[in-house]
């Protein structure tokens, strides 16, 4: 989704802004732009396509500027074109605005501005903000206060004015906006990644905040227009964690980082095996009699595995819902419900809206999230922070496996709270990172499979029980980065429809590791074989009986059935990666997708 950057200080602004934009590339975008404050003028560059194209179009003579703002755009109102790229200006070219979000009263504001004689040069909602600012008298800060009252919707805004080279204004309602505080300089960005190379000291603006940033300091105002203090946080992510570190793609690097991410997540919850799981702050109040998991995409798939964990280990009833559906229903929620939001980014608009809805109805809000200080973290009563580190590849990998692990750890804590025996799981948990390392050694074997299948246009993924969500996730990985049509299905449902698709051209990925569902899974695999489908199976090491049935198999180490999904997804991530690579796809920034989906 759109990304905002900004700089005000003593350095050359252009290299800072460009570097910052590159750091936001992973979020997904289709055009980019920059405005630099020159002596008494604004110099704007906008380009459809990649930041590289924007960089090439920028004249080196503007390198003396020490303030400016920049933007990566993911089209909402208007096609991705140079003209629709941000920044946008008013008729006189005084204000330049970058914006992330959606202005919902776009049509009425556009009509009003046209009637008032404004010349609109783009199809965007953002341009309207520049013209609305132009309409107001007084200082830019006063103008901003008035304009924020007129716009409905969601925004993170960066604004500069031609006559104020030493000031930048920002505002947020919905999409995140972070301020980096250096020595006599300020950085602005939609997430931590652009800021971390310069400073680890950040201020996270609250919903409804707006601010004036200047050399004299920072003035932050709340939605009620009261000047407020927002504390400075120190971010412990190392900027190097967000580099490729010798890997061809972020996605591959992140797949390989899974053993470490799992180890760190275990260590944070089980400091030593003797004391066991130490997550007392997540204990459930007695009144909680049901859990509702809300999430989107990969995080929702983690939630489906979590349902198994909680129902089996804790004995509480669990529902899992798409956040984009739940928020528009009238769900039955009360103080006896725990809503558990799952989100890597912590900024997914639908998940945020569902959690807010739950809060309004009195439910207790917990979340599993990878980004401390994100909206979801801050609106939750308790947040379990996964230790995946920054995830840059659009296709979620290490965030998913750490979400599964976090759900398992929380379930163990809740089972312990109910007086159940959980010690037997601790040994297997400690071995988990090593088992994942073992699978990574199969990379070449998986590349060979990718070579055989990368030209296929359809795939079916099947699993049962805990492996059904893994089938969904395996299929999602493949479709999002290779653009192959892939469907995940509960294997037992195949006979109710999808079986019609099976013939000698259809690859069927069957997740058939040893658990209580395996016999049933074998029966479904036989059904595929009987129709000449091509069976590619995930099986446990040495499971010769089932191996005979498969056309191709990837053997994975055996662990406790609850932990097996964390192992089983890894070869499917690698398979998707290598197939996408062979098809020449942009693995880290797949078409049409964004890393943080901050609009509904
Ligand atoms: O940041 P979140 O976990 O809330 O994001 C949810 C989905 O947008 C995300 O998982 C998406 O499906 C990924 N592209 C999957 O790889």
Labels describing this entry:
600 residues; alpha/beta; seven-stranded antiparallel β-sheet; 18 helices; 23% strand; globular; binds 5-amino-5-deoxy-1-O-phosphono-D-mannitol
Beta-strand fraction estimate? 15-25%
Contiguous helical run count: 18
Taking the alpha carbons of the first and last residues, their distance comes to 11 Å
Low-confidence stretches: none
Secondary-structure-based class equals alpha/beta
Rounded to the nearest angstrom, the radius of gyration is: 25 Å
Strands, count: 25
Work out the oligomeric state of the chains in this entry: single chain
Widest beta sheet: strand line-up: 3-2-4-1-10-9-11-15
Overall geometry comes to globular
Output mean pLDDT.
Answer: 92
**What summary fits the major beta sheet?**
8 strands, antiparallel
- Roughly how much helix do the residues carry, as a percent range? 25-40%
- Ligand roster: 5-amino-5-deoxy-1-O-phosphono-D-mannitol
What is the gist of this entry?
This protein has 600 residues and is α/β, with parallel strands linked by helices.
What would your notes on this structure say?
The N and C termini lie close together (11 Å). The chain has 18 helices and 25 strands. By secondary structure, the protein is α/β, with parallel strands linked by helices. Bound molecules: 5-amino-5-deoxy-1-O-phosphono-D-mannitol. Residues 296-299, 343-345, 348, 351, 394-396, 480, 593, 596-597 line the site of 5-amino-5-deoxy-1-O-phosphono-D-mannitol.
């Amino acid at each position: 989704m759109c990304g905002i950057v900004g700089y005000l200080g003593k350095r050359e602004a252009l290299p800072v802004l460009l570097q910052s934009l590159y750091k936001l590339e992973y979020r997904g975008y289709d055009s980019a732009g920059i405005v630099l404050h020159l002596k008494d003028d604004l110099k704007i560059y906008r380009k459809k396509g990649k930041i590289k194209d924007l960089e090439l179009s920028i004249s080196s003579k503007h390198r003396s500027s020490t303030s400016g703002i920049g933007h990566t755009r993911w089209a909402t109102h208007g096609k991705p074109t140079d003209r629709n790229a941000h920044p946008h200006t008013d008729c006189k070219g005084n204000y330049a605005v970058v914006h992330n979000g959606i202005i919902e009263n776009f049509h009425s504001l556009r009509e009003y501005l046209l009637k008032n004689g404004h010349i609109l040069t783009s199809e965007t909602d953002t341009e309207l903000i520049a013209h609305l600012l132009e309409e107001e008298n007084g200082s830019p800060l006063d103008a901003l206060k008035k304009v924020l009252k007129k716009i409905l919707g969601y925004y993170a805004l960066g604004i500069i004015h031609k006559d104020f080279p030493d000031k930048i204004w920002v505002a947020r309602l919905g999409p995140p906006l972070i301020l980096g505080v250096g020595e006599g300089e300020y950085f602005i960005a939609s997430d931590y990644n652009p800021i971390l190379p310069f400073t680890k000291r950040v201020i996270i603006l609250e919903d409804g905040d707006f601010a004036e940033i200047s050399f004299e300091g920072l003035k932050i105002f709340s939605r009620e227009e009261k000047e407020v203090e927002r504390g400075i946080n120190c971010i412990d992510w190392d900027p190097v964690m967000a580099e490729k570190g010798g890997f061809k793609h972020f996605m591959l690097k992140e797949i390989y980082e899974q053993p470490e991410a799992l180890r760190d997540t275990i260590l944070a919850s089980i400091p030593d095996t003797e004391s066991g799981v130490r997550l007392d702050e997540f204990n459930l109040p007695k009144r909680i009699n049901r859990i509702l998991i809300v999430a989107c995409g990969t995080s929702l798939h983690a939630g489906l595995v979590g349902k198994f964990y909680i129902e089996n280990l804790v004995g509480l009833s669990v529902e899992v819902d798409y956040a984009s559906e739940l928020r528009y229903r009238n769900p039955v929620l009360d103080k006896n419900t725990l809503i558990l939001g799952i989100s890597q980014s912590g900024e997914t608009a639908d998940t945020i809206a569902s959690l807010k809805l739950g809060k309004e109805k009195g439910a207790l809000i917990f979340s599993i999230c990878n980004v401390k200080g994100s909206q979801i973290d801050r609106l939750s009563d308790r947040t379990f922070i996964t230790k995946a580190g920054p995830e840059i590849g659009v296709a979620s990998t290490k965030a998913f496996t750490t979400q599964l692990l976090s759900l398992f750890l929380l379930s163990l804590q809740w089972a312990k709270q109910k007086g159940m025996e959980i010690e037997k799981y601790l040994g297997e948990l400690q071995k988990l990172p090593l088992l994942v390392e073992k699978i990574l050694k199969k990379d070449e074997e998986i590349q060979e499979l990718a070579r055989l299948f990368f030209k296929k246009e359809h795939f079916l993924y099947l699993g049962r029980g805990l492996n059904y969500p893994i089938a969904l996730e395996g299929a999602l990985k493949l479709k999002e980065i290779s653009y192959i049509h892939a469907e995940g299905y509960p294997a037992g449902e195949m006979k109710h429809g999808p079986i019609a698709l099976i013939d000698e051209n259809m690859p069927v990925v069957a997740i058939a590791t040893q658990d209580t569902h395996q016999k049933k899974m074998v029966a479904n695999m036989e059904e595929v074989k009987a129709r000449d489908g091509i069976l590619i199976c995930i099986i446990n090491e040495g499971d010769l009986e089932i191996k005979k049935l498969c056309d191709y198999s990837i053997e994975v180490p055996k662990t406790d059935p609850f932990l097996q999904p964390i192992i089983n997804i890894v070869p499917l991530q690698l398979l998707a990666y290598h197939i996408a690579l062979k098809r020449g796809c942009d693995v880290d920034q797949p078409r049409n997708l964004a890393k943080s989906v901050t609009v509904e």
